[in-house]
Write a structure and sequence with these properties.
single chain; 156 residues; alpha/beta; Rossmann fold; two-stranded antiparallel sheet; globular; binds 1,3,4-trihydroxy-5-OXO-cyclohexanecarboxylic acid
């Protein structure tokens, strides 16, 4: 069975009330529910984790390394500062899609650099909260297996 871990970093627990003009109206629980629904419809298992603490995020990434097929990660402001989180991702073999709700490239210059991006599989930036579900779709599509006749086998 394929398994996805959704990880959200600092201040993302306040989605829904945090700067809604930038991050939208949906709560983190809403987002987790949407991602879980998409994954379960496609036969995937789902786990979610949020923390405001860098070390706890590192521990969650390490602990998932033998269980998760993929990780969707919004590191919040740690995107721009954390060599330790970058090293955690580089230390495991699980592919990571980095998601940012806002278009960080249109915002303050300190948000233009991601220390995380070079060690991720890909990024989805500026698409709003649907970006998380788009990332889940990318994993589902990538890990779907074809049989010898070119038919799609839903992976189990
Ligand atoms: C964010 C962008 C970061 O710059 C910011 O610190 C966040 C959220 C986003 O999802 O757009 O906390 O990662």
């Amino acid at each position: 069975m394929k398994r996805l871990l959704l990880v959200n970093g600092p201040n993302l627990n306040l989605l829904g009330t945090r700067e809604p003009g930038v991050y939208g109206q949906k709560t983190l629980a809403d987002i987790e529910h949407e991602v879980e629904t998409t994954l379960k419809e496609n036969g995937w298992e789902f786990d979610a984790f949020q923390s405001n603490h860098e070390g706890d995020l590192i521990d969650a990434i390490h602990e998932s390394r033998h269980e998760s097929t993929g990780i969707i990660f919004n590191p919040g402001a740690y995107t721009h500062t954390s060599i330790a989180l970058r090293d955690a991702i580089a230390s495991i073999d699980v592919p990571v899609i980095e998601v940012h709700i806002s278009n960080v490239h249109k915002r303050e210059s300190f948000r233009h650099t991601s220390l995380i991006s070079p060690v991720t599989w890909g990024q989805i930036v500026g698409m709003g909260t649907i970006g998380y579900t788009l990332a889940a779709q990318a994993f589902i599509d990538h890990f779907r297996e074809e049989n010898e006749d070119g038919e799609i086998n839903e992976t189990t």
